[in-house]
Structures are given as structure tokens and as C-alpha cells.
UniProtKB/TrEMBL annotation:
<keyword id="KW-0408">Iron</keyword>
<feature type="domain" description="Radical SAM core">
    <location>
        <begin position="210"/>
        <end position="376"/>
    </location>
</feature>
<dbReference type="InterPro" id="IPR058240">
    <property type="entry name" value="rSAM_sf"/>
</dbReference>
<dbReference type="GO" id="GO:0031591">
    <property type="term" value="P:wybutosine biosynthetic process"/>
</dbReference>
<dbReference type="GO" id="GO:0003824">
    <property type="term" value="F:catalytic activity"/>
</dbReference>
<keyword id="KW-0479">Metal-binding</keyword>
<dbReference type="GO" id="GO:0051539">
    <property type="term" value="F:4 iron, 4 sulfur cluster binding"/>
</dbReference>
<keyword id="KW-0949">S-adenosyl-L-methionine</keyword>
<dbReference type="InterPro" id="IPR007197">
    <property type="entry name" value="rSAM"/>
</dbReference>
<dbReference type="InterPro" id="IPR029039">
    <property type="entry name" value="Flavoprotein-like_sf"/>
</dbReference>
<dbReference type="InterPro" id="IPR013785">
    <property type="entry name" value="Aldolase_TIM"/>
</dbReference>
<protein>
    <submittedName>
        <fullName>tRNA wybutosine-synthesizing protein 1</fullName>
    </submittedName>
</protein>
<feature type="compositionally biased region" description="Basic and acidic residues">
    <location>
        <begin position="149"/>
        <end position="162"/>
    </location>
</feature>
<dbReference type="Pfam" id="PF04055">
    <property type="entry name" value="Radical_SAM"/>
</dbReference>
<dbReference type="InterPro" id="IPR034556">
    <property type="entry name" value="tRNA_wybutosine-synthase"/>
</dbReference>
<feature type="region of interest" description="Disordered">
    <location>
        <begin position="58"/>
        <end position="162"/>
    </location>
</feature>
<keyword id="KW-0411">Iron-sulfur</keyword>
Length: 376
């Protein structure tokens, strides 16, 4: 559980306060003689780090440490650096390959007051508030480095300070799963029904119901983020979540162009594959339908209307799926070929349990979305 939470938080762009520690009930493998003693040692480092952050102290290290190799020792001595980074060697192999270590943060804690530093529980609330304030100030400072902004480009500064939706770790994980990522928040992937129809087999229900040929269907999304954390999500909750668009935004023209190019490149990989029909392969190179149902919440994308309009201008029909959490966006949506609103539960309690929405007024949004759909 600890390893998974550590991995998920890191993939979502979080920063570690201190290196994750793992305990072992086997006393022979304990560094401090017992599981409890190991926890006390880690706790002291953690609380010391909180005190350092509360005082506004910054990391002496560049934060680019990986596999125990520190690029910027700062005030740390070589001996203390080697000692601290040695601790990270006990991380599991997967963590070593995927994560940057945070051993430099442990050194900060020791510099701040040693491993025996303690803090009252009553003070933790103030410390955490100060930590958040310090982090925001640091992000603003880092965002302003190298910039000389005038009043005319003040609007650009606000956009430039926004972070990208796809973190480096998430980009690597999604790429390994077969996603072709576009810009900083979009993606495209081959559907298994597309592969099946290329081989002369049947298509998905859209083919059965509406005559849409699966081998000419491009599955994509202009937003990998979502406002729900559904229990049945096939992304296993590694995709970003949010109730509003707060990331950098790519233009719809670029998204569509790269989506078509990436889709065609994936189709090309089936040339000469056993069982693939030559005529269907040729047809598949020209997408005639776009299913905006890959993952995330496509309707969250601020330029969704422009994107759909571009699809239609390229003679590509549109199929947009949205969770019932954005009624205003549904009302403002210009005509699409097909609009689907997912209804995953029938009561407020079951919807909360199944979709696990982020909005507090999720039930009213759900009802408003269905009303908005009926008015389209």
C-alpha cells in the first residue's frame, strides 16, 4: 500500500516531504533493533523536515537526485551525502527505476535540527499551512526565473505559470500502455475493436447500432483529466483529476493533426500482419469517425466546440461521451454527431459509492446534466 500510494502521488506531480521508509518485523533486518524503533527514527526525520519547511528553509540539493547520485550537494558534506543517499538503496527496484529519490530532503531535516527534533501535535496545523504557503511562494519564484514581464504580457504569465497535465512519470507509464500522447493533455489509442475489424471480424456496438465501421474509427480524448474516480476506471486512477481546467492548454488544430498522424502510424504497424484484410487496411488509413471516449472527461477541454467543429470540417463524425457532472458544458456544447451521458447509478448514495465524484454537489449536477441532455 505504501509503495502504491508513493508511486501514485509522484505520478500526479506531488513532492515528497521525506523519503518513504519500509519496516520489517524481522528484527535481524531492522536498522534500529525493532519495527517501532525504525518508525521512531523515520518520524524524527519527518518532523524535523516539517520544522525546516516551516522556517522557510530550502533544499540545498537541486532535487535531481536519482539512484543515490547527487548533482548538487550544496551545504552537505560528501560524507553526509553518501550516508543519506545510501539509505535510498534499500528502495525496491521498481522505485529506483521510476522515481527520483528525496534523500537530499533528509539531509535538510538533519541540518535543520538533527534527528532528535520534535514538534507538538497541536502545532502541526500551523506547520502544514505554512508549508503550503511556502510552496506556493517557491513555485511563483521559480516560475518567474528568467522572465522579464511587462503589463502587455501579464496575461501570458498567468498561462505560463500553469503546469502541464501530464507529468513525466505519467507520460512514461501511458506510453508503455500503448497511448500516443499529444501535447500536454490529449491522447489517442487503438481500440481492440479496430484491430478486430482490420482482421475481418466484428465491430463494436456502434457498428451494430449505427453502422460505424470500427476499423475507420479513431479513439481519442482532448482531456486525460476527469472529475470522477470511478471504481471501474480502466486507468486505475492514475490519470489526473480536477473539477475545473487548471492546466496549460493546447490548441485544437494541433491536437487533431497529431491525433490523425498518430492514429495512422498505429494503423501502419498492421501492414502485412497475418489475418489483416488488405482492403480494410487501406480504408483504415482514413478515419471517418472519432470517438471522444478514450479516457478522462473530453467536455472539460475549454475548446471542445472548436475541436468538434474541426472534426466535422474533416468529414469525421463525432461521438462524445461525458460523465454527468458538467451540465453547463452540455448546454453550451454545439451539435455533435452523437452525445452520450454516462449514467452509472440510480441513487445519490450509489452514485457516490460507484463514481466517487469530486464535486460536492454531484447529485444535483447529475440531475441537471440529464435535464440538459433532454433539451439538446
Amino acid at each position: 500500500v505504501g509503495r502504491n500510494i508513493d508511486r501514485w502521488l509522484w505520478m500526479l506531480g506531488a513532492s515528497r516531504v521525506v523519503t518513504r521508509a519500509e519496516g520489517d518485523c524481522n528484527v535481524a533486518q531492522s536498522k534500529h533493533g525493532s519495527l517501532e524503533a525504525d518508525f521512531e527514527a523515520w518520524k524524527d526525520k519527518f518532523l524535523g523536515r516539517l520544522q525546516a519547511l516551516c522556517r522557510g528553509e530550502k533544499k540545498p540539493c537541486s532535487g535531481k537526485c536519482r539512484k543515490g547520485k547527487c548533482k548538487s550537494l550544496g551545504k552537505q558534506s560528501k560524507e553526509s551525502s553518501d550516508h543519506e543517499h545510501g539509505a535510498s538503496e534499500h528502495e525496491n527496484t521498481e522505485a529506483e527505476e521510476l522515481f527520483e529519490t528525496s534523500s537530499e530532503e533528509e539531509a535538510d531535516a538533519e541540518e535543520a535540527g538533527g534527528t532528535n527534533s520534535v514538534v507538538d501535535v497541536e502545532d502541526l496545523g500551523n506547520i502544514m499551512s505554512h508549508m503550503k504557503k511556502t510552496k506556493r511562494e517557491r513555485e511563483l519564484e521559480e516560475g518567474d526565473v528568467g522572465r522579464s514581464l511587462t503589463r502587455e504580457n501579464a496575461g501570458r504569465k498567468e498561462e505560463g505559470d500553469k503546469r502541464e497535465m501530464i507529468t513525466p512519470a505519467l507520460r512514461e507509464a501511458l506510453t508503455k500502455q500503448g497511448y500516443k500522447l499529444i501535447g500536454s493533455h490529449s491522447g489517442v489509442k487503438l481500440c481492440r475493436w479496430t484491430k478486430a475489424m482490420l482482421r475481418g471480424r466484428g465491430g463494436c456496438y456502434k457498428h451494430t447500432f449505427y453502422g460505424i465501421e470500427s476499423h475507420r474509427c479513431m479513439e481519442a480524448t482532448p482531456s486525460l483529466a476527469c472529475a470522477n474516480k470511478c471504481v471501474f476506471c480502466w486507468r486505475h486512477h492514475t490519470n489526473p483529476v480536477g473539477t475545473e481546467w487548471r492546466w496549460k492548454m493546447d490548441q485544437p488544430e494541433m491536437i487533431l493533426q497529431e491525433a490523425i498522424e498518430n492514429h495512422q502510424n498505429m494503423i501502419k504497424q498492421f501492414k502485412g500482419v497475418s489475418g489483416v484484410k488488405a482492403d480494410r487496411f487501406e480504408e483504415a488509413m482514413t478515419a471517418k469517425h472519432c470517438a471522444l471516449s478514450l479516457v478522462g472527461e473530453p467536455i472539460m477541454y475549454p475548446e471542445i466546440n472548436r475541436f468538434v467543429k474541426l472534426l466535422h470540417q474533416h468529414s469525421i463524425s463525432s461521438f462524445l461521451v461525458t460523465n454527468a457532472q458538467f451540465p453547463d458544458e452540455i448546454r453550451n456544447l454545439e451539435p455533435v454527431t452523437q452525445l452520450y451521458v454516462s449514467v452509472d447509478a440510480s441513487t445519490k448514495e450509489s452514485l457516490k459509492r460507484i463514481d466517487r465524484p469530486l464535486f460536492k454537489d454531484f447529485w444535483q449536477r447529475f440531475l441537471d446534466s440529464l435535464k440538459a441532455l433532454s433539451e439538446k
